[in-house]
Amino acid sequence: MHEYSITESLLALALEKANEAKAGKITRINLVVGELSGVVGECVQFYFDFLAKDTIASGAELAFETKPTTVRCHKCNNVFTPENGNWACPECRETGIEIVSGRECYMESIEVE
Amino acid sequence: MTVKVIKVGEDILGANEEKARANKSRLDSHGVLTVDVMSSPGAGKTSLIMSTIKHIKDKARISVIEGDVASSVDADKINEMGIPVVQINTAGGCHLDANMVENALNGLPLENTDLLLIENVGNLICPNAFILGEDKRVMISSLPEGDDKPYKYPAMFADSDVVLLNKIDLQPHLDFNVEGFKKTVTGMNPDVIIFSVSCKTSEGMEAWFDWLESAVKGKKNR
Asked: What is the rounded distance in angstroms from the CA atom of residue B217 to the CA atom of residue B215?
């Protein structure tokens, strides 16, 4: 359900940027979404098609670039992607990590006519 | 028509973050320590808030924002305790956002509040992605949920200042590895403070109250 509010926010942002550029139509919105952001692309597109009706973004395609989760081991600095819920470092077996990527949720660019 | 690419490079939730910063300055100006309480449904958010009120209402002036998908049962309980409370019904929405909190703040006596407790919607997936203007994020994880929750919802655990491991009185009945859980959470979030508590028996609650009271004082003396 949080996709609905994310979709409202992204539509508002895209329309604002298109207006600033005096564009007549938005054809594509390029988004970068991390695995940890919990954003489901199909779900956002579904809400978008509904919310963007009667705006210059109507019919725009949403393109999602998904960023995998990567974490850095506090002990040996190894950067890895946790697999099967295993957050221990595959190199040194330590469990202390920090999240490097996977939280992204931003608009890279919009394509307009 | 030629297609033109406009570089944006902005966070999609930027508008929420801007509003959250405004809430934060408003709360800061009144010296209100603001705590966002997050957990899955049934982990003990309302119980924690109620026992916290009972214990520290003579030491700090408390206000509460209750976020729920529907109903006002939690807010009614808090209202009966004589505490200013605003209910936010998200009408199906799975988290609170800064805009909802801004509206709720208008209904609270901020000039007479030392501590604002915000009960977020019960959910482990996204409340952490929406900042509200809080000083501290407190997450409750309870024993019946199982000790694997940090692996399934890592961002929630990584973003919390405090994790309260609630329903610790059930430990004899459950296969929950408390030490393993603490190690996992600390592994993801080295600065986190973990308290093992039971809102039902009050076991371990003193440590949480002490932490909270000292955070309230710290905010007042800022």
From this structure: 5
* ipTM for the complex shown: 0.87
The whole-angstrom separation of Cα B21 and Cα B10 is 17
**Min distance B30 CA to chain A CA atoms (Å):** 30
Distance from CA of A40 to the nearest CA of B (A): 12
Which residue reads 């405004």 in tokens?
A: B22
A16 located within any domain: yes
Considering the entire predicted model, what is its pTM? 0.91
Contact A18, A10 (CB under 8 A): no
CATH label of the domain that carries residue A31: 3.30.2320.50
Q: Which residues of chain A have pLDDT under 70?
A: 1
Report all structural domains of chain B as residue ranges with CATH numbers, in order of start: 14-220 (3.40.50.300)
Subunit contact B187:A97, Cβ cutoff 8 A: yes
Q: Which letter, b or e, does each residue of A77-105 get, where b requires 16 or more Cβ atoms within 10 Å of its Cβ?
A: eeebebeeeebbbeeeeebbbebebbbbb
